[in-house]
């Protein structure tokens, strides 16, 4: 099964903000086994497969055929941090009522982390966890095409990643929680303590 998002970060793309990606994953029996995310604006392609390392390589998209440069392995296995020192990414729904719930959760998280970043592309957020540009990431209510490739890349880089199964849709409101050792566990505990460890729709 192919899981494809031709433009992850559509609003950024429309507004000319250089934070959007092409995300492609292959899944077997409902589990991602290979994935690639192309950061088109900055000319990088991230990739991973089950049993292999996460990698990043430069890619030249200016010609008819993309030219991929030398791949380098990326790893966060030794990047243990306390949540208080963690830079954490998140995202928000298109739905106004769900955004209100997400804002309440964010208000709880923000005092306990170094800072928050909101990029607007789940695939890139997860690749940033893999590459070390952020230490953690959480978001409620994504579709499989938003996270399938990026979650595998982050996991193969050594991050801990918890996602819904691929058959759930954004309507479920379930969270994806990713981070380096120490950060993901504490972030998940915090979300659970606030009643946001499951569907965001459970919050009143």
TrEMBL record:
<dbReference type="GO" id="GO:0008934">
    <property type="term" value="F:inositol monophosphate 1-phosphatase activity"/>
</dbReference>
<protein>
    <recommendedName>
        <fullName>inositol-phosphate phosphatase</fullName>
        <ecNumber>3.1.3.25</ecNumber>
    </recommendedName>
</protein>
<feature type="binding site">
    <location>
        <position position="7"/>
    </location>
    <ligand>
        <name>Mg(2+)</name>
    </ligand>
</feature>
<dbReference type="InterPro" id="IPR000760">
    <property type="entry name" value="Inositol_monophosphatase-like"/>
</dbReference>
<keyword id="KW-0378">Hydrolase</keyword>
<dbReference type="GO" id="GO:0046854">
    <property type="term" value="P:phosphatidylinositol phosphate biosynthetic process"/>
</dbReference>
<feature type="binding site">
    <location>
        <position position="5"/>
    </location>
    <ligand>
        <name>Mg(2+)</name>
    </ligand>
</feature>
<keyword id="KW-0479">Metal-binding</keyword>
<keyword id="KW-0460">Magnesium</keyword>
<dbReference type="GO" id="GO:0006020">
    <property type="term" value="P:inositol metabolic process"/>
</dbReference>
<dbReference type="InterPro" id="IPR020550">
    <property type="entry name" value="Inositol_monophosphatase_CS"/>
</dbReference>
<dbReference type="GO" id="GO:0007165">
    <property type="term" value="P:signal transduction"/>
</dbReference>
<dbReference type="GO" id="GO:0046872">
    <property type="term" value="F:metal ion binding"/>
</dbReference>
<feature type="binding site">
    <location>
        <position position="8"/>
    </location>
    <ligand>
        <name>Mg(2+)</name>
    </ligand>
</feature>
<dbReference type="Pfam" id="PF00459">
    <property type="entry name" value="Inositol_P"/>
</dbReference>
<dbReference type="InterPro" id="IPR020583">
    <property type="entry name" value="Inositol_monoP_metal-BS"/>
</dbReference>
<feature type="binding site">
    <location>
        <position position="146"/>
    </location>
    <ligand>
        <name>Mg(2+)</name>
    </ligand>
</feature>
């Amino acid at each position: 099964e192919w899981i494809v998002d031709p433009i992850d970060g559509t609003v950024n793309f429309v507004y000319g903000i250089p934070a959007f990606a092409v995300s492609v994953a292959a899944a077997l029996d409902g589990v991602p086994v290979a994935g690639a995310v192309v950061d088109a604006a900055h000319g990088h392609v991230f990739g991973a497969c089950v049993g292999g390392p996460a990698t990043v390589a430069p890619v030249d998209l200016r010609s008819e055929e993309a030219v991929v440069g030398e791949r380098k392995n990326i790893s966060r296995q030794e990047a243990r941090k306390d949540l208080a020192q963690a830079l954490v990414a998140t995202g928000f729904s298109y739905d106004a009522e769900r955004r209100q719930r997400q804002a309440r959760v964010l208000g709880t998280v923000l005092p306990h982390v170094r800072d928050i970043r909101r990029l607007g592309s789940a695939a890139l957020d997860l690749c940033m966890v893999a590459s070390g540009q952020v230490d953690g990431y959480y978001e409620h209510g994504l579709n499989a095409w938003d996270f399938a490739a990026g979650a595998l890349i982050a996991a193969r880089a050594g991050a801990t990643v918890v996602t819904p199964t691929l058959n759930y849709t954004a309507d479920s409101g379930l969270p994806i929680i990713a981070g380096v050792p120490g950060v993901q566990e504490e972030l998940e505990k915090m979300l659970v303590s606030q009643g946001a460890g499951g569907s965001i729709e459970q919050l009143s």
